[in-house]
Queue: 4 jobs
Job 1
Amino acid sequence: MKVLVAVGSKYGATRGLADVIGQEIGSVGFDVDVEDACDVLSVTAYDAVIVGSAIYGGLWRRDASALIEEHADELKKRDVWLFSSGVREVKEPGYATGEAEKLTELVGAEQHAMFAGALDYDRLNVGERAIIRAINPPMGDHRDFALVRDWAHEIGVRLLFLALA
Ligand SMILES: Cc1cc2nc3c(=O)[nH]c(=O)nc-3n(C[C@H](O)[C@H](O)[C@H](O)COP(=O)(O)O)c2cc1C
């Protein structure tokens, strides 16, 4: 059984979560590719697909949401899980919400999980710094790798059941 973990990440925090998810599912015994969503041309080689994205302005990274929208027909035939990562204090009036739920519905994904991300002010561009200064969210790395590993392990066990069925 071949598994794809595809991720939309601007500064690498969500990519770090995807790497851990890939390691954990690989440790259960599956053949796993972890790819940036923009590099995925097709999902047909995979039996199961996990797609995750950082949230910016309430939305997924465009490469990750486009991957789901453009390959929806193929994804519907596969086992799919989604995850988002963000710093929930970063919210402004008018920010879109519910995109991940819509994507979950679109492909009939098993589940959408929300994980804490990371904010490194020094790496942000001028526009992002202005937004972050106005909101003043907690800076730093809030990723809970143990939680993410547990989530990925559950997926691995579920895939094991499916593979044996
Ligand atoms: C300009 C900006 C806007 C953001 N908007 C949101 C948001 O709407 N909701 C949220 O939960 N996190 C938001 N975040 C936090 C990011 O999702 C978080 O830093 C994430 O871990 C970044 O992942 P990456 O390093 O993979 O790009 C925002 C961060 C920045 C810099």
Note: Residues 9-15, 54-58, 85-88, 90-91, 95, 117-119, 124, 128, 131-132 surround flavin mononucleotide (CB under 6 Å).
Job 2
Amino acid sequence: MKSFFQLILMFAVAVWARVRERYFSRERILKIRDKKLRRLIKYAFRKSPLYRKLYQNIDISKAKLTDLPTVNKEYLLKHLPDSLTIRGISRDEIVLFAHDPDSVGKYFKNRYVLSTTSGTTGIIGYFLMSQWQWIVQKGVEFARLLKHRLSFPYVYKYTVRTKLRWAMIVASEGHYITYLLARLTPKQAFYLSDIRIFSITKPMNKMVEELNEFQPHYVHSYPTFLEALAYEKLAGRLKIDVDFMSSGSEPFSDHAREVIKKAFKDVEIVETYGTTEAICLANQCRYQKMHINEDYVLIEAVDDENRPVSDGVASKKVLITNFINKLQPLIRYELRDSVVIDRNYKCECGSPFAVIEVQGRSDDTFYLMTKEGHFRAFPPIPFEALFLRIKGLRQYQLIHEEQNHLLVRYIAQDSKENERIEKEIRERFAEFFKDTDVADNITVTIEESGEITRPPTHQKVRQIFSRVKPPPNII
Ligand SMILES: [Zn+2]
């Protein structure tokens, strides 16, 4: 019964979110935003010991947003139980649940959603949200992802005429948000659509086989992975027709879009900007502009010192405030993303929301050669997923040094663990390549590295990159 009400709530939120974007003026949206912001600040101050302490010398009824101190992942981690607006949850309970493989895809204490960020930067973040807030978030994401497609003919087509088959190709071995998004859904939703989760680390030939069998209408994955699927389709191995594709976590290259459009003729592609801390940051419209969901989040583009940068200027960081999560409020929470915001852009789609461009990560796809001389695309995210599961790994870098020769550089949290970590990396790679047709044609070198630094031109360490030029003919 509870899940039935959740489903109703999810659709109601989705309809409301769609109505706002379609019919509300920018002024009205900003009023809603400011009201929600005030309410969240007051609530956090009243209920969370962390924010009470942080704002103790500030008159929060008068303060401007920029008067409030910022928070970050490290700070929140240090005061984890105090960052919550409910008492009685300990750090140990959270950590234990987060690291128990059997708890993945389940509700924490049967009522909270616990998600973690990847540990590859050294620090794992834990984020909690109530089940009802989670449902609201899903409703918003649903409406803002589908946008104009959330119309009567579309809904009719994919509920009454045929059940929407929805493939999520994501990292599925931890409490990762995209996976939870597919998994923690009111169960009645599965009568309306068939959502299937495919693990990103599955070998491509197996993936192709399973997708051919499933025949999805809609695929969500990472741009580089969608591009790799397009090569499979052009080569005639992948036999699916897709209506709609969405992607997150990486920017789309023009080349990837081109290849995908060539392979999947009428497909519509949209990008999303979301993080574990706030899934619904921004979604792309049909004119390829990313709109900030300003009635649910507030994004400030700032420099290194957290001072605001002007519209049109690339930021060094962003500060996000998420209005949906009241269990663990995030107010002016720092993210290491570089964005460009334009508040005055009048988009053809008519959205009242500001436009944002995100300069995301830029990892490379590796083009590895079979013994017969054919090239196969290996996108970066499955490699990343291989590293995510290795305990005690502080940092890594994967480099395609020369054609079919890979180099792994890593730093362990404790150098006494080097041997075990190396062995695990070697095993994971062997397992990953085992069923592919490049398996007998590649070499992998693994070496402990003193330091892995980011190049001066990049915000983040380039974790997965190629020194080998892509071949002219990939199929
Ligand atoms: Zn637009």
Note: The CA atoms of residues 396 and 445 lie 13 Å apart.
Job 3
Amino acid sequence: MAEKRPTALITGASSGIGAVFAREYASRGHDLVIAARRTDRLDALAAEITASHGVSVRVVASDLSVPGAAKKLATAVGKTPIDVLVNNSGWGHIGAFAAEDLDGMADEINVNITALTQLSRLFVAPMIERGRGTIINIASTAAYQPVPNMSVYAATKAYVLSFTEALWGELQGTGVTALAVSPGGTATEFFDVAGGRAMSGGLMTPSQVVATAMSALDTKSPPPSVIVGSSNRVMAMAGRFVPRRMLISVAKTLMKSDSSRH
Ligand SMILES: NC(=O)c1ccc[n+]([C@@H]2O[C@H](COP(=O)([O-])OP(=O)(O)OC[C@H]3O[C@@H](n4cnc5c(N)ncnc54)[C@H](OP(=O)(O)O)[C@@H]3O)[C@@H](O)[C@H]2O)c1
């Protein structure tokens, strides 16, 4: 009997980095479960991937801002063993904290933190039981310092980084690994949703983000986290040695918030 293909579950595959992760795992012979709210986009991606890679792709409509959404997604996945979970869904809002919308903030925290944590919990236990699996959580370079005018988003990503690295520590010796991936500004729909401009400097491509994640995972001993781009790595490391007030003012300057749009 032919061996069953491994399966990757990817949230937020309807655009940007998530869609590239979907193509990458399909090219590596994985069946896919792809989830997001925009199922028209997911259906188009599923058709493209099925035609180009011959793997099976299931589309699941999922709004991860809704309480209970992680459990609902796991129920939709059913008995299919998940070998790779990519917690990629996420969004942020650019603007002064004092003007933030209460429901919007809760939605952001639900998607970026609650759903990511619950999905990790739901899928890690069966991975440990099977003695293999990978959880990729998408953090951000915003995780490495507070970011004025994007305070909630940066704080959610600091959570993702800390949580994922701790999980990596717990998983040592289980055959399962967790990796936090921190892209800097990347050319996706992120800044359209965020309602502002990109941070200073050129944008990277989603393919660069995925290539960095995959090369970290392809090593014999994958690290707990990776930062995409050498200048971003230098900035994040340098930030450890800079006084906090200086770090925050540099982040504020780089943010270039366009507050007139909010
Ligand atoms: N682009 C950057 O500069 C950058 C930098 C650092 C980190 N990141 C992180 O990278 C990840 C991917 O973002 P991206 O850059 O690829 O941006 P993107 O093109 O806007 O993609 C975001 C994805 O998240 C999904 N999503 C948003 N809200 C959701 C919800 N309520 N329920 C389910 N899915 C939801 C979207 O799907 P639907 O709208 O169809 O639901 C979409 O597929 C995010 O976690 C983001 O924070 C991005």
Note: The domain at 7-261 is CATH 3.40.50.720 (Rossmann fold).
Job 4
Amino acid sequence: MGASTRWSTLVKARLAEMQRLDPGRGEVGPAFWDKRAKRFAAAMAGTAERDPLLARLRRATGPRSTLLDVGAGPGRFALALAPRVERVVAVDSSAVMVEIVARRARRLRLTNVEGVVGAWPDVDVAPASVSVCSYVLPLIADAKRFLRRLDACTIEQAFVYTNAASLDFLTDPLWRHFHGKPRRLGPTYLDLVDVLAELGIPAEVEVVELPTRPHHKNINAAVKAYRDQLLLPDNPAVRHELRGLLSSWLVEEKGRLRPPVRSTPAAIVSWRPQRD
Ligand SMILES: C[S@@+](CC[C@H](N)C(=O)[O-])C[C@H]1O[C@@H](n2cnc3c(N)ncnc32)[C@H](O)[C@@H]1O
């Protein structure tokens, strides 16, 4: 089995499991992100400055650079880089996410940020000096088409940011406790490097540690977030059991709750497009 077929098999099996446990969830399309945009934006606010990818992107860009952020979400990287580059295009398939980027850009008085609503790779944008795609690929079944277009829209350097361990390595014991069997694993950065190799793109990999965010404001918020993440039904028995398990597992930091690890590994996969 080739790398892109393996990738697609892993993603489809994971999405099918999500769909079976929570009908509608297996699509993870714009409606999914529209609904979660506000919560995601609040949870990620202020995280870019501590993120090793931002330092890496700062080194790769300058005042004359253009930046393309694919799946920009609420724009944590796009907006952090905008003051030091010529122009930023933030693409996202969720219109609510793009609205958040536009609102934040106005508040920061940034006039060089353009938001584009559309699902990559079917988006009409001009190539940029540097492109970034952070935490988007693990649920995209056709990684080959997605990456080929990202490469075509990049002039100098492309960066894809993704999990370096299984997406579930923290919540795996909870998943097994409730579902009685392991979760279908998604692809990792190693699969990503293999897909790029299949496209004839030799990539560099840097594994970095991401500081854990203490973002649950209380145990109720944590129960809600983990119930969603673990695809559990919303009933009093499940909430009660999850609350008991989370109460002894989560740790408090600065009045908020986080998992009992200080950081998690992520992979910065980058390449310089080769044009004939
Ligand atoms: C986990 S969030 C990551 C957001 C941002 N890149 C970050 O790291 O904070 C994933 C984002 O990718 C967007 N997305 C998913 N598939 C997409 C696609 N095919 N084209 C454009 N955006 C997509 C979602 O709407 C969501 O905003």
Note: Residues 3-21 form the longest helix (19 residues).
